[in-house]
Design brief:
Blueprint: E1 2-8, H1 15-28, E2 34-37, E3 51-52, H2 59-64, H3 72-85, H4 87-94, E4 101-105, H5 111-114, H6 118-128, E5 131-140, H7 147-164, E6 168-173, H8 180-190, H9 194-198, H10 206-225, E7 230-232, H11 238-251
Parallel strand pairs: 1-4, 1-5, 2-3, 2-4, 5-6, 6-7
Length: 281
Protein backbone atom coordinates (compact mmCIF):
# COMPACT_ATOMS: atom_id res chain seq x y z
CA UNK A 1 0.00 0.00 0.00
CA UNK A 2 1.10 3.54 -0.78
CA UNK A 3 0.02 6.79 0.86
CA UNK A 4 -0.55 10.34 -0.39
CA UNK A 5 -1.54 13.75 0.89
CA UNK A 6 -2.95 16.18 -1.66
CA UNK A 7 -1.96 19.52 -0.13
CA UNK A 8 -4.17 22.31 -1.43
CA UNK A 9 -5.43 25.75 -0.56
CA UNK A 10 -5.54 29.36 -1.78
CA UNK A 11 -2.37 31.15 -2.86
CA UNK A 12 -0.27 32.16 0.13
CA UNK A 13 -1.89 29.72 2.55
CA UNK A 14 1.43 28.01 3.31
CA UNK A 15 1.27 24.83 1.23
CA UNK A 16 4.97 24.64 0.37
CA UNK A 17 5.98 25.55 3.92
CA UNK A 18 3.65 22.83 5.18
CA UNK A 19 5.17 20.23 2.85
CA UNK A 20 8.68 21.20 3.92
CA UNK A 21 7.94 21.08 7.65
CA UNK A 22 5.92 17.85 7.50
CA UNK A 23 8.55 16.13 5.36
CA UNK A 24 11.26 17.13 7.84
CA UNK A 25 9.13 15.90 10.75
CA UNK A 26 8.54 12.51 9.09
CA UNK A 27 12.24 12.13 8.26
CA UNK A 28 13.19 12.95 11.85
CA UNK A 29 11.04 9.99 12.88
CA UNK A 30 13.20 7.80 10.63
CA UNK A 31 10.47 7.31 8.02
CA UNK A 32 10.80 7.93 4.29
CA UNK A 33 8.78 10.62 2.53
CA UNK A 34 8.79 12.28 -0.88
CA UNK A 35 7.46 15.69 -1.94
CA UNK A 36 6.06 16.18 -5.44
CA UNK A 37 5.64 19.69 -6.86
CA UNK A 38 2.52 19.96 -9.00
CA UNK A 39 2.53 23.76 -9.20
CA UNK A 40 3.70 24.67 -12.72
CA UNK A 41 4.11 28.31 -11.69
CA UNK A 42 6.22 27.71 -8.57
CA UNK A 43 9.44 29.70 -8.32
CA UNK A 44 11.16 28.45 -5.17
CA UNK A 45 10.75 25.85 -2.42
CA UNK A 46 12.04 25.10 1.02
CA UNK A 47 12.30 21.47 -0.05
CA UNK A 48 13.84 19.55 -2.93
CA UNK A 49 11.01 18.00 -4.97
CA UNK A 50 11.38 14.37 -5.94
CA UNK A 51 9.12 14.96 -8.94
CA UNK A 52 8.51 18.38 -10.51
CA UNK A 53 5.71 19.11 -12.97
CA UNK A 54 7.83 21.93 -14.42
CA UNK A 55 9.97 19.24 -16.06
CA UNK A 56 6.85 18.27 -18.02
CA UNK A 57 5.26 21.68 -18.53
CA UNK A 58 5.66 25.19 -17.13
CA UNK A 59 2.90 27.78 -16.90
CA UNK A 60 5.01 30.03 -19.14
CA UNK A 61 4.73 27.40 -21.88
CA UNK A 62 0.96 27.88 -21.94
CA UNK A 63 1.11 31.67 -21.60
CA UNK A 64 3.77 32.21 -24.27
CA UNK A 65 2.31 29.81 -26.83
CA UNK A 66 1.23 31.77 -29.91
CA UNK A 67 -1.91 29.67 -30.35
CA UNK A 68 -2.96 29.11 -26.71
CA UNK A 69 -1.88 32.48 -25.27
CA UNK A 70 -3.45 31.80 -21.86
CA UNK A 71 -3.39 34.16 -18.92
CA UNK A 72 -1.97 33.01 -15.55
CA UNK A 73 -5.18 31.30 -14.35
CA UNK A 74 -5.98 29.67 -17.67
CA UNK A 75 -2.36 28.57 -17.96
CA UNK A 76 -2.49 26.80 -14.59
CA UNK A 77 -5.67 24.98 -15.53
CA UNK A 78 -4.19 23.94 -18.88
CA UNK A 79 -1.03 22.63 -17.18
CA UNK A 80 -3.03 20.48 -14.74
CA UNK A 81 -5.16 19.11 -17.58
CA UNK A 82 -1.98 18.41 -19.55
CA UNK A 83 -0.62 16.47 -16.54
CA UNK A 84 -3.72 14.26 -16.45
CA UNK A 85 -3.44 13.65 -20.19
CA UNK A 86 0.18 12.57 -19.63
CA UNK A 87 -0.51 10.28 -16.69
CA UNK A 88 2.15 7.81 -17.88
CA UNK A 89 4.82 10.45 -17.26
CA UNK A 90 3.63 10.96 -13.69
CA UNK A 91 3.38 7.22 -13.01
CA UNK A 92 6.90 6.65 -14.30
CA UNK A 93 8.24 9.49 -12.14
CA UNK A 94 6.54 8.16 -9.01
CA UNK A 95 7.83 4.62 -9.52
CA UNK A 96 6.27 1.48 -8.15
CA UNK A 97 7.75 1.19 -4.64
CA UNK A 98 5.46 -0.07 -1.89
CA UNK A 99 4.98 1.93 1.32
CA UNK A 100 5.69 5.25 -0.43
CA UNK A 101 4.51 8.30 1.53
CA UNK A 102 4.15 11.25 -0.83
CA UNK A 103 3.13 14.87 -0.28
CA UNK A 104 1.70 16.48 -3.43
CA UNK A 105 2.15 20.26 -3.38
CA UNK A 106 -0.67 21.61 -5.56
CA UNK A 107 -1.24 25.05 -7.15
CA UNK A 108 -2.96 27.85 -5.24
CA UNK A 109 -5.90 28.22 -7.62
CA UNK A 110 -9.00 27.56 -5.54
CA UNK A 111 -11.33 26.66 -8.43
CA UNK A 112 -9.18 23.60 -9.16
CA UNK A 113 -10.58 22.15 -5.94
CA UNK A 114 -13.99 23.72 -5.44
CA UNK A 115 -15.69 22.79 -8.71
CA UNK A 116 -13.28 21.68 -11.44
CA UNK A 117 -12.61 17.95 -11.91
CA UNK A 118 -8.85 17.99 -12.59
CA UNK A 119 -7.72 17.31 -9.01
CA UNK A 120 -10.52 14.76 -8.61
CA UNK A 121 -9.15 12.96 -11.68
CA UNK A 122 -5.66 13.08 -10.16
CA UNK A 123 -6.96 11.53 -6.94
CA UNK A 124 -8.73 8.79 -8.91
CA UNK A 125 -5.48 7.99 -10.74
CA UNK A 126 -3.53 7.74 -7.49
CA UNK A 127 -6.14 5.46 -5.96
CA UNK A 128 -6.04 3.29 -9.08
CA UNK A 129 -2.25 3.07 -8.65
CA UNK A 130 -2.65 1.76 -5.10
CA UNK A 131 -2.50 4.94 -3.03
CA UNK A 132 -4.58 5.69 0.03
CA UNK A 133 -5.28 9.39 -0.58
CA UNK A 134 -6.23 12.21 1.77
CA UNK A 135 -6.92 15.82 0.83
CA UNK A 136 -5.43 18.46 3.14
CA UNK A 137 -6.83 21.95 2.64
CA UNK A 138 -4.91 24.84 4.17
CA UNK A 139 -6.59 28.15 4.94
CA UNK A 140 -4.64 31.09 6.37
CA UNK A 141 -5.89 31.62 9.92
CA UNK A 142 -5.21 35.37 9.60
CA UNK A 143 -8.18 35.62 7.20
CA UNK A 144 -10.53 33.63 9.43
CA UNK A 145 -10.78 35.81 12.51
CA UNK A 146 -14.23 37.30 11.90
CA UNK A 147 -17.63 35.75 11.28
CA UNK A 148 -18.24 36.59 7.59
CA UNK A 149 -14.76 35.46 6.51
CA UNK A 150 -15.04 32.29 8.58
CA UNK A 151 -18.39 31.46 6.96
CA UNK A 152 -16.87 32.10 3.52
CA UNK A 153 -13.86 29.90 4.27
CA UNK A 154 -16.10 27.18 5.67
CA UNK A 155 -18.28 27.11 2.57
CA UNK A 156 -15.19 26.95 0.33
CA UNK A 157 -13.89 24.01 2.38
CA UNK A 158 -17.28 22.29 2.14
CA UNK A 159 -17.27 22.75 -1.63
CA UNK A 160 -13.85 21.08 -1.84
CA UNK A 161 -14.96 18.18 0.36
CA UNK A 162 -18.03 17.54 -1.82
CA UNK A 163 -16.13 17.92 -5.09
CA UNK A 164 -13.20 15.61 -4.27
CA UNK A 165 -15.04 12.93 -2.26
CA UNK A 166 -11.88 12.01 -0.33
CA UNK A 167 -10.93 11.61 3.32
CA UNK A 168 -10.40 15.26 4.14
CA UNK A 169 -8.92 17.51 6.81
CA UNK A 170 -9.14 21.32 6.94
CA UNK A 171 -6.13 23.06 8.45
CA UNK A 172 -5.86 26.59 9.79
CA UNK A 173 -2.29 27.47 8.89
CA UNK A 174 0.01 30.22 10.19
CA UNK A 175 -1.36 30.03 13.72
CA UNK A 176 2.09 31.12 14.92
CA UNK A 177 1.54 34.51 13.24
CA UNK A 178 -1.70 35.33 15.08
CA UNK A 179 -1.70 37.72 18.01
CA UNK A 180 -3.08 36.48 21.30
CA UNK A 181 -6.22 38.58 20.80
CA UNK A 182 -6.83 37.22 17.30
CA UNK A 183 -6.15 33.65 18.45
CA UNK A 184 -8.66 34.01 21.27
CA UNK A 185 -11.22 35.39 18.84
CA UNK A 186 -10.61 32.52 16.43
CA UNK A 187 -11.20 29.98 19.21
CA UNK A 188 -14.87 31.02 19.18
CA UNK A 189 -15.22 29.60 15.67
CA UNK A 190 -13.28 26.33 16.00
CA UNK A 191 -16.31 24.77 17.71
CA UNK A 192 -19.08 25.94 15.37
CA UNK A 193 -21.63 28.16 17.12
CA UNK A 194 -24.21 29.91 14.95
CA UNK A 195 -24.44 32.86 17.32
CA UNK A 196 -20.65 33.32 17.32
CA UNK A 197 -20.54 33.10 13.54
CA UNK A 198 -23.23 35.76 13.20
CA UNK A 199 -21.90 38.08 15.89
CA UNK A 200 -19.69 39.93 13.38
CA UNK A 201 -22.19 40.06 10.54
CA UNK A 202 -23.11 43.73 10.28
CA UNK A 203 -26.89 44.00 10.31
CA UNK A 204 -26.86 47.78 9.86
CA UNK A 205 -25.47 47.60 6.31
CA UNK A 206 -27.72 47.02 3.31
CA UNK A 207 -25.94 43.72 2.62
CA UNK A 208 -26.21 42.60 6.24
CA UNK A 209 -29.92 43.41 6.42
CA UNK A 210 -30.74 41.72 3.13
CA UNK A 211 -28.78 38.50 3.66
CA UNK A 212 -28.73 38.14 7.43
CA UNK A 213 -31.31 35.34 7.32
CA UNK A 214 -29.18 33.48 4.74
CA UNK A 215 -26.09 33.91 6.91
CA UNK A 216 -28.06 32.64 9.90
CA UNK A 217 -29.19 29.55 8.00
CA UNK A 218 -25.64 28.80 6.84
CA UNK A 219 -24.26 29.24 10.34
CA UNK A 220 -27.01 27.03 11.79
CA UNK A 221 -26.33 24.34 9.18
CA UNK A 222 -22.63 24.34 10.04
CA UNK A 223 -23.45 24.00 13.72
CA UNK A 224 -26.21 21.39 13.40
CA UNK A 225 -24.42 18.97 11.09
CA UNK A 226 -20.76 19.62 12.01
CA UNK A 227 -20.04 19.47 8.29
CA UNK A 228 -16.77 21.39 8.44
CA UNK A 229 -14.24 21.51 11.22
CA UNK A 230 -10.73 22.92 11.31
CA UNK A 231 -7.47 21.75 12.87
CA UNK A 232 -5.23 24.65 13.94
CA UNK A 233 -1.57 24.20 12.97
CA UNK A 234 1.46 25.97 14.39
CA UNK A 235 4.20 24.94 11.97
CA UNK A 236 6.87 25.83 14.56
CA UNK A 237 5.42 23.46 17.16
CA UNK A 238 6.45 19.81 16.73
CA UNK A 239 3.54 18.64 18.88
CA UNK A 240 1.10 20.52 16.65
CA UNK A 241 2.58 18.87 13.55
CA UNK A 242 2.59 15.47 15.23
CA UNK A 243 -1.07 15.78 16.24
CA UNK A 244 -2.14 16.73 12.74
CA UNK A 245 -0.10 13.90 11.20
CA UNK A 246 -1.69 11.43 13.60
CA UNK A 247 -5.13 12.50 12.36
CA UNK A 248 -4.11 12.26 8.70
CA UNK A 249 -2.29 8.94 9.08
CA UNK A 250 -5.34 7.45 10.78
CA UNK A 251 -7.50 8.57 7.85
CA UNK A 252 -5.22 6.99 5.23
CA UNK A 253 -4.46 3.95 7.45
CA UNK A 254 -0.74 4.60 7.35
CA UNK A 255 1.20 1.97 9.27
CA UNK A 256 -1.73 -0.37 9.84
CA UNK A 257 -0.36 -2.97 7.42
CA UNK A 258 3.07 -3.07 9.04
CA UNK A 259 4.03 -6.21 10.92
CA UNK A 260 3.97 -6.02 14.69
CA UNK A 261 7.44 -6.48 16.11
CA UNK A 262 7.55 -9.21 18.73
CA UNK A 263 10.37 -9.88 21.14
CA UNK A 264 12.01 -13.27 20.66
CA UNK A 265 11.97 -15.10 23.95
CA UNK A 266 14.05 -18.29 23.94
CA UNK A 267 13.08 -21.00 26.37
CA UNK A 268 15.64 -21.69 29.04
CA UNK A 269 17.41 -24.99 28.84
CA UNK A 270 17.07 -27.21 31.84
CA UNK A 271 20.80 -26.86 32.43
CA UNK A 272 20.36 -23.11 32.65
CA UNK A 273 17.62 -23.35 35.22
CA UNK A 274 18.64 -20.78 37.79
CA UNK A 275 17.48 -20.04 41.27
CA UNK A 276 16.92 -23.65 42.22
CA UNK A 277 13.40 -23.76 40.75
CA UNK A 278 12.27 -27.35 40.52
CA UNK A 279 11.05 -28.57 37.14
CA UNK A 280 8.09 -30.91 36.83
CA UNK A 281 7.33 -33.33 34.03
Amino acid sequence: MRYAQLVMGPAGSGKSTYCSAVAEHIENEKNSVMVVNLDPAAERFKYTPTVDIRELIHVDDAMDDEILHFGPNGGLVFCMEYLIENEDWLREQLGEDDDDYILFDLPGQIELYTHMKTVKQLADLLQHWGFNVCSVMLIDSQFMVDGPKFISGTMAALSVMINLELPHVNVLSKMDLLSKTARKHLDNYLEPDARALLSDVKSHTSWGKKYRHLSKCIGQMIEDYSLVQFVPLNIKDEESISGLLYTINTMIQYGEDQDVRMADFDQQDSDDNAGGVEEFD
